[in-house]
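Journal club prep — side note

Before the paper discussion, L.F. wants everyone to see what a predicted structure for a comparable chain looks like in token form. Sequence:
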Amino acid sequence: MAEKAFRNTSSTKGLFVTLMAVTCVLIAAVFAVLWWLQGAGLATIHPKLPAIIGGLLAVVAGCILLGTLLLVLTTLLGKDIFGTRLLRGIAIKFLLPVIEFIGKLAGISRDTIRQSFIAMNNSLVLSQRVRLKPDRILILLPHCLQLTDCDIKVTGDINKCARCGRCPISGLADLAEKYRIDISVATGGTLARKVIMEKRPKLVVAVACEGDLTSGIRDCYPLPVLGVLNERPFGPCVNTTVDTQKIDEALRMVLS
């Protein structure tokens, strides 16, 4: 039930998969147009050159379309398919900026696309059926989960938390203690990367907004990251909150 509940939070992944498929088809079409436009000029160099270049472009376009199909099948079936880990990297590193651009042209907000990307990433990570010991997992939190008027700053050491229950930090610290998992609070991407370098986990469960989670997933690749979006009732970066149950469910799916 826990796995089903967490996967249900990833229902938006279909948007990113659709945009990814459209992007790949457009890239393949651009290759075809370029080959057609350059055909006459290439023939003047050598009569067989258009066919050779066309064949190479067809192979590249075919690989792009095949890769997209594998990612779609993995996302829909929830099962790892050969090469998916590499394809996840391609989607993260190269396709995401293009997809955000195409989404902007279609009138889709960047945050909506990033929410869908995070959902798809979670689905791909879970499809690998990773099972790890608690000491190989890291929970990474943003400092904005702590109330701004709290006198105790937990950045660097969450055990300083007084467990007053006024913000999510208390419940998250209890959760990490329950599973005996490392948990850290970071003030930004630089500190987050430093924590990951020091802890050297095999998997990260990260809480953040759309932008920080997307950049974090990109920066951490190939390290798998399960992203959980925070909630911002008072706006960005101020007294945010998160559903602790979602993190609990995510942990239970990856713990051995």
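L.F.'s comment for the group: The chain has two domains: 2-127, 134-254. Keep this in mind when we get to the figures.
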